[in-house]
Design goal:
Length: 384
Amino acid sequence: MGKKGLGFNSKTIHGGQEPDKAYGAVMPPIYQTSTYAQTTPGGHKGYEYSRSGNPTRTALERSLASIENGKHGLAFASGLAAIDAVIKLLEPGDEVVSTNDLYGGSYRLFRQVFEKYGIGFHFVGMQNLESIESLINEKTKLLWVETPTNPMMNVIDIRAAADLAKKHDLLLAVDNTFATPYLQRPLDMGADIVMHSATKYLGGHSDVVVGALVVNDDELAEKLYFLQNASGGVCGPMDSFLVLRGIKTLHVRMQRHCENCKAIAEFLQSHPGIDKIYWPGFPAHPNHDVAIRQMSDFGGMLSFIPKGGSFDDAVKIVERLQVFTLAESLGGVESLAGHPASMTHASIPKEEREKSGVVDSLIRLSVGIEDVKDLIEDLEQALL
């Protein structure tokens, strides 16, 4: 079997990869160099300056393309740098329709950076296609989708969004950070661009900050490569190496993330001190049927609201946690707890946050791969 026919688990290890040509190294070496010797002006072995290209970054970009079933991968200094490149495809006067429940950093980039350059943004609950279509006009150029969303775990139908984008000749970009390509592959469902904060599950060890884009269209890839090089938001070779290492265990980590998260969701559902739980695996969760159809499992993220909760109650709970670490970010092997209203989503105005359900008492969990018994016991003592 050639590498093109590999299953997903094998792709995480071998996809897009070959032993190093110099000495046969199994892992791509860290080419810690800024520049490359030339035999004559413009005569080189494929690399001339590491902003434009680096062999370690190339190895990562090939791996990213492989696991997302794409043709072209691009690695950036962060997820926001990757998003920045996508929005730079647009021109003043263009408009974007995005979900109203999205990562606070994405919202900040859209509203506080790009709006002043004449790009318009509309935010709407994307679970209902009619609400999306009502905002599309002749200026609309891009649909920006997160699914599951951060932190409300809303599920958006990627195939339906792709059909809508094609109907109106729009680009569809999907932030696949929460699900990862282990659970869903948006390009296979009609998306034009897949974005990752590779800092999260792809890296998987909370030790690196990297972003990624994957596309199929050659012309779109060329435009994004130009922006990657011209704007310079690239990741370094060591960061590339770390994410590539993380991808090699993505499949086994995601299995445990999903198993542990399911057990914790069921524990919280039965706990008398919990008011609401947001987890796509529950039959009552909005668009649960879509999650079953487009995801192979329900992921390692959930959010909940304690009964009679307030800002202070939520803060006390997360401060009492001992195995869960109170910290920004998600997707590492260790379990993390966050308070979106004061942490990841603090840049979104309170009125806007609360419209999408991000209330002051909401707690978000990134469930790691520890013994689930220890995680449940930690939640039990924190919820007392």
